[in-house]
Amino acid sequence: MPITVYSADVVVPVTAPAVHNGAVAVQGGRILHVGTRDWVLGTLRGAATPVTEVHWPGVLLPGLVNAHTHLQYSGMAHVGARQYTGFEDWWASFDAVYEAGGHDWRRSAAAGATDSLAAGVTSLADVVTDVEAVGALHDAGLRGVVYWEVIGWANDRWRAEGIARVEAELDRIPTPPAIGVSPHAPYSLETEPLLDLPDVARRRGARLHIHLGESASEGGPLTGPRDETWRNVDAESFQALRRDGFAASATDFVDQLGVLGPDCHIAHGIYLNAHDRSLLRARTTAVALCPRSNAVIGLDEPDVAAYLTEGNLVAVGTDSLASSPSLDLLADVAALYDIARRQGYGAGDLASRLLRAATLGGAIALGMATGPDRVGQLQVGSLADLAFVDVTGATVREAIESVATDGAGRVAATLLGGGVRWASPAWSSRSDRTRVGV
Predict the structure, then answer these.
(1) Residue range(s) defining the domain that contains residue 130
(2) Distance (Å, rounded) from C-alpha 248 to C-alpha 226?
(3) Which entry of 34, 112, 153, 241 is 20 to 30 Å from 128 by CA?
(4) Which phi and psi angles does 156 have, rounded to 5°?
(5) Which residues contact 255 (CB under 8 A, 6 or more apart)?
(6) What does the DSSP 8-state code read for residue 161?
(7) For residue 438, pLDDT beyond 50
(8) In angstroms, rounded to a whole number, what is the distance separating the alpha carbons of residues 287 and 305?
């Protein structure tokens, strides 16, 4: 098979140091070599197969991983264009539009998939509520996990029909990509569905994803002794625990029910204290931070500095257009950068850590960081999903800083399996394609 060498001023493998004047050789949809341009081309010299080099005067990254979104709400951008005073205010506006009906969920999700490719995103955690939208990633050839969202179930109804309904709905999701289960949130499901849904997912070998710490009502005490008596209460729901005066956090509650684990990642994680964050680390559970969505809704900022300093597994999500200005993941990276600096994170590795979160961190959250079909990294044998960004820097570090702080809207091309799936006018005019050997 022919070989294409993609070279750039700076190549960021993520699982290895960044390379000045680097290159990635691709054959058969997978990465064949990674290193300096001279070394990669020298290794291929005399190859008995056609070799073509495509050079970009900017930065080459792994395809980005959006670790939390709802593509089906891409047609509700007018909801996300407003500013809200808090979660209840936003939810009322969202629910009114959702319940009004007349939505073409399939078309809306397909538009979101196109927007994602234009933002350099090649893998997604797409949370789907309506079956018409379940095929968006499959139809677009994107990678990731389609999480079937389960919301609004009370214990009695769940016992009567819940598991059978969810199993049937999961069977309707086309593959690839992978399938997951998303128990919506501790405040929208009573205890029994939260207890059963992890088992439903794990029997299938599926992933789990839950909104957690998105509402201030989910937080526990920030300081002081912890009251553990709630663990002996047979509560019908998290809200019932709170109604009865127990101060357990939502994180404690879902952990008690067995939701958390290395096969699970959470979205938002705003109202988590130090104890809650330590639970995520203990369970090897990643958090997808969605700062621009939080700002639109009127929520507090996630404690980005603490998540990084304490060593949590961090990924990045845009959420949906119903609560975010765009599906541009690098805009959320820039927002996280600003938040972390304001919160006192002063280390010089912030840009590289956040780009890791937007690539390998998302792959870890979705269970896609290892194995033959691994993503989020430029590594020999991994899938050749690439994103070229139109930024420069006098040094490798400056280029990485530019991507993290000023990369939004500057993706030049997005490749899946080594093939260009989206390209800007700049890609056509500024990339240089050369036949270099036979």
Answers:
(1) 64-365
(2) 8
(3) 241
(4) -65, -50
(5) 279, 283
(6) I
(7) no
(8) 13
